[in-house]
Design goal:
The chain has 242 residues and is α+β, with helices and mostly antiparallel strands. It is 19% helix and 43% strand. It contains four helices and twelve strands, in the order H-H-E-H-E-E-E-E-E-E-H-E-E-E-E-E. The chain has a twelve-stranded antiparallel β-sheet with strand order 1-8-9-10-11-12-2-3-4-5-6-7. A hairpin with a 2-residue loop joins strand 4 and strand 5. Helix 1 packs across helix 4 and helix 3 runs antiparallel to helix 4. The longest helix has 15 residues.
Length: 242
């Protein structure tokens, strides 16, 4: 389970994929999909792309708060994260999984996971900017249509909200496209919150239900909320490994 969880987290960060309700959002997770009628947004993809390019050029640090939910059969796994990133290669995250708290620290090519004074070496996450993966996805396979939902407020930011679907990419949930079961959905629903004033990506939600050979139907929902852009961040390794 630990390996699966770590694979999901690494894939989410690297590709910009995560999925559900974060307590920072003022509306309940998924409420925008159920209670609002989307309208076509002809320039939606261009607006999202412009925001992502701008962030890639000027962000050096940021904070993230996220919740990831994975449902397979009768098993539900929920992982919560909160922490800071110092680009391009350092992070300090608190993680809660099944009521147990962990710390994930990465400083350059050195990465560790653990709690208290006990830490183990883990694989460094190579890409710490979720918007990079999303930008590549939009450039390589632009959505056929983008819908705009009513504005929502994330903390103090009034955001334009856009929604679109994209095919589930190879590597989704850590498995190859060949491992996805036929006859089940192979698309992910993306909801993107763009700060109306600063044009910054403030929140990303992804929802997908698909089938994986040998596992069955898997539903994944995740949300990442971004804050504290370019605020001072100091990342240090645990004393037991430094």
């Amino acid at each position: 389970m630990r390996h699966v969880r770590s694979s999901l987290w690494a894939a989410a960060i690297a590709a910009g994929f995560l999925v559900t309700g974060c307590s920072l959002v003022t509306a309940a997770p998924g409420a925008n999909q159920q209670a609002s009628v989307p309208i076509p947004a002809a320039r939606g993809a261009a607006i999202i792309g412009s925001s992502l390019v701008s962030m890639a050029k000027r962000l050096h640090t940021y904070q993230i708060k996220a919740e990831e939910t994975l449902v397979s059969g009768t098993h539900t796994s929920v992982v919560n994260y909160f922490g800071s990133f110092s680009l391009p290669d350092s992070l300090d995250l608190d993680e809660t999984l099944a009521g147990v708290n962990y710390r994930i620290v990465q400083l350059g090519s050195r990465a560790y996971v653990g709690a208290g004074s006990v830490y183990a070496v883990t694989r460094p996450i190579p890409v710490l900017t979720p918007w990079t993966g999303l930008a590549r996805l939009l450039a390589a396979d632009p959505p056929k249509s983008v819908a705009q939902l009513p504005d929502q407020t994330i903390l103090s930011w009034i955001c334009n909200v856009y929604q679109f679907t994209e095919p589930v990419p190879s590597g989704w949930l850590g498995v190859s496209a060949a491992s996805l079961s036929p006859g089940l959905p192979k698309e992910a629903l993306y909801t993107v919150w763009i700060d109306r004033q600063d044009n910054d990506l403030r929140q990303l939600e992804i929802q997908s239900t698909t089938g994986i050979s040998g596992i069955g139907t898997v539903a994944m929902t995740a949300v990442q909320t971004y804050d504290a852009f370019n605020a001072p961040v100091h990342v240090s390794l645990p004393k037991s490994v430094s």
